[in-house]
Design brief:
The protein is an all-alpha fold. It has a domain of 47 residues. The protein contains three helices and no strands. The longest helix has 27 residues. It is elongated. The N and C termini lie far apart (75 Å). This is NADH-ubiquinone oxidoreductase 9.5 kDa subunit.
């Protein structure tokens, strides 16, 4: 019998009390509870990405991969201006 059993009482049965079972594990083993919760939220976030693009905001402008040279360089620069 561990310390968590003394504090939280008997182990709840999943099929009879699922909410109590989740609360028990959230308090006694939070590392398992939150890792599973974050892992299950990933597919949900992927499913809502098209809705985000449509209703909230579009994707960002891609970062340029090179320096944009739009015209000829100024030949009159002197010193550290170049």
């Amino acid at each position: 019998m561990g310390v968590a059993d003394q504090v939280w009482g008997d182990y709840p049965v999943y099929y009879k009390q699922p909410i109590r079972w989740l609360r028990y594990h959230a308090h006694t083993k939070p590392h398992f509870f939150w890792s599973i919760a974050f892992g299950l939220s990933g597919p949900l976030l992927i499913a809502f990405t098209p809705l985000r693009k449509k209703f909230i905001y579009d994707d960002h402008v891609p970062v340029p991969q090179s320096y944009p040279l739009e015209g000829p360089r100024d030949k009159n620069l002197t010193g550290y201006d170049d």
